[in-house]
Amino acid sequence: MKLPQLDTDRFTAEEGLRIIVQVPDLRAQEVVDAVLAVCTLKYGDYYSVTFRTEPGTQQFRSLGSGRNAATEDVLEVPCVELSFFLPDDGTTAVEVLKAVYATHPYEEPVVFVQPCVRTLHIRGMDEDNPNRFWNRAPEEWVPDAQK
Asked: Per residue, what are the HEC states of the chain?
């Protein structure tokens, strides 16, 4: 599927990759730190931009052909999903994925790589927008450093 031209006077569009990694909750920050050692994860005017879900349940049954013994029952592990955008640069993507594999505690990490398009605002468009956090009373979700 070919996407239509998305550039406007309000935002631009950039092609790249969306990386999604399922990882045990307690090891998620280690994976993020390893990725950041390779790539700044810049998103417009911000660095270190990642998304982490609340813990959910990953389930699996070991076939016994890897390091783990075969299991008859399905096993469950509390995991989160990390996602982030990478520029359309194969070299960076390979290095980031190597960092994920080197840091991830699993023998077979669950990693998805999807082509995607992200939008980036055009700076200066929202100075008077009443919906922007800087034009409103501070809300609970706004970090203290931004108030």
From this structure: CCCCCCCCCCEEEEEEEEEEEEEEHHHHHHHHHHHHCCCCCCECCECCCCEECCCEEEEECCCCCCCCCCCCCCEEEEEEEEEEEEECCHHHHHHHHHHHHHHCCCCCCEEEEEEEEEEEECCCCCCCCCCCHHHCCCCCCCCHHHC
